[in-house]
Amino acid sequence: MTTVAITFAEVAEQIQALLAALAQAQDDGRTEDLVALYAEDGIVDVPGLGTFAGVNALREAFAGWAPTVPQRHIVTNTLVTDWDGDSARATSDVVFVQRGDSGWAVATVARYHDTFRNADGTWTLARRSMEFIG
């Protein structure tokens, strides 16, 4: 049996693609698509709102947070650390903007602390802890 080594560049690219898919699904209000990007036992910890564990809790939380006005999570400065073929960690900055009567405005600035899992070539988000900035 031949094992193919995964490179840091491949891990970073796959994590970046997953982060983009997560943000777009959330901003579009596509709850099922969003939840499908999490591990079955995935966890999201949001200060002030609580910790949501498992796909059912995540589905309920994200459905409750579905956008009522246009919004965007702008995820940037992603630093992938502690990676191998099965798991990775990354820290990203996020700017959350919403469009209101006066146009687009920054609603929140935060940092994501994420842990990812790779199963059979598919990366999912296993844990997200948020830290609000300012």
Please sum up the structure shown:
With 134 residues, this protein is α+β, with helices and mostly antiparallel strands.
Structure description:
The protein has 134 residues and is of the alpha+beta class. It has helices at 8-28, 31-35, 55-64; strands spanning 38-46, 50-53, 71-81, 87-100, 103-119, 122-132. The mean pLDDT is 95. A six-stranded mixed β-sheet has the order 2-1-6-5-4-3, covered by helices on one side. The longest helix has 21 residues, at 8-28. The protein contains three helices and six strands, in the order ααββαββββ.
Features of the shown structure:
3 helices, 134 residues, 6-stranded mixed β-sheet, alpha+beta
Give the integer mean of the pLDDT values.
95
Strand order of the largest sheet: 2-1-6-5-4-3
Q: How large a portion of the residues is in β-strands, by DSSP E? A: over 45%
Binned, the helix content reads: 25-40%
**Structural category:** alpha+beta
Low-pLDDT segments, ≥5 res: none
Outline the biggest β-sheet.
6 strands, mixed
Order of helices and strands: HHEEHEEEE
The count of β-strands is 6
- Give the number of helices: 3
Taking all Cα atoms into account, the compactness measure Rg is 15 Å
The shape is globular
Q: Span from first to last CA?
A: 52 Å
